[in-house]
Amino acid sequence: MANKKGKGPSSNVIAQNKKARFEYHIDEVFEAGVALSGWEVKSLRAGKAQLTDTYILIKNSEAWLLGSHITPLNTASTHELADPTRTRKLLLHRKEIARIFSRTQDKGHTCVPLKLYWKGPLVKCELALVTGKKQHDKRATEKDRDWQRQKGRIMRDQNRS
């Protein structure tokens, strides 16, 4: 199936939380559906979403996405009040919610969203159980990233010669 916009294989990604991958060690990843209203889906199609400083809250055996920001379009519905930072319900199986709840009760564990993406006509949220990194772990991650970038430059220069 050809991609309409030509952005490559990752064009189904709406928003990513790159900061979460740098700040945390990812232990376990889940996929959840997101309950949205009509204007939110239109805004997501336009790519107007942010996941920075977003987290998952388990309350009354339900998972909620807090802190996500979906900017309403100018052409959004006039009869509905568009709240860009409202809490959105995440659709997970009961066993997954129980697992996330039990792991987040442990010291040092939390649950954060990693990305929002399209899966067919549906919006999905990839969320992860994470533990915080120490400062030296962050420095090691940055050092490794710089080394990979430098190694790519060296290989590219060797192939040109």
TrEMBL record:
GO biological process assignments: trans-translation; trans-translation-dependent protein tagging
Basic and acidic residues bias: where?
Answer: 138-161
Q: Region Disordered: start and end of each range?
A: 134-161
- Enumerate the GO terms in the molecular function aspect: RNA binding
Main localization (coarse): cytoplasm
InterPro entries from the UniProt entry: SmpB, SsrA-bd_prot, SsrA-bd_prot_CS
Entry keywords, A to Z: Cytoplasm, RNA-binding
Name where it's found. Cytoplasm
Please report which protein family the annotation says this sequence is part of: Belongs to the SmpB family.
The name on file for this protein is SsrA-binding protein
